[in-house]
Design a protein that fits this description.
Elements (H helix, E strand, L loop, with lengths): L3 E4 L11 E3 L2 H6 L8 E8 L2 E5 L5 E5 L4 E3 L2 H8 L6 E6 L4 E6 L1
Antiparallel strand pairs: 1-7, 2-6, 3-4, 3-5, 4-8, 7-8
Length: about 100
């Protein structure tokens, strides 16, 4: 079983209103079940946005389709990047997803 997955896809982009979409692999890593919404923890560290299913940080809701509305600090990280694109690092061992701006 693969433990670390990197998703670099230019279609991953934050909307102007601050909404991002997590792909199925990221939602599965966070322990989400199909067609249900979940609360996950969000932290911003060193220009990276970390999502985990347990731990510290602010709780944010992930819709059944994987949409998340980012808070001000996390939104600011992606606003500073070129065209609001991001890539993901998915870790199945720690059940965490790290979002990096391009």
């Amino acid at each position: 079983m693969q433990q670390l997955l990197t998703v670099k896809n230019k279609s991953l982009k934050m909307s102007p209103s601050g909404i991002i979409t997590l792909p199925v692999s990221a939602r599965r890593c966070l322990g989400m079940k199909k067609a249900t919404s979940e609360l996950v923890y969000l932290q911003v560290k060193d220009k990276q946005i970390l999502f985990s299913n347990s731990g510290k940080g602010a709780k944010v809701k992930v819709s059944p389709k994987g949409n998340i509305t980012l808070a001000d600090e996390a939104k600011r990280v992606l606003d500073e990047s070129k065209e609001r694109h991001y890539w993901l690092e998915i870790n199945d061992t720690s059940h965490s997803v790290v979002l990096h701006p391009f």
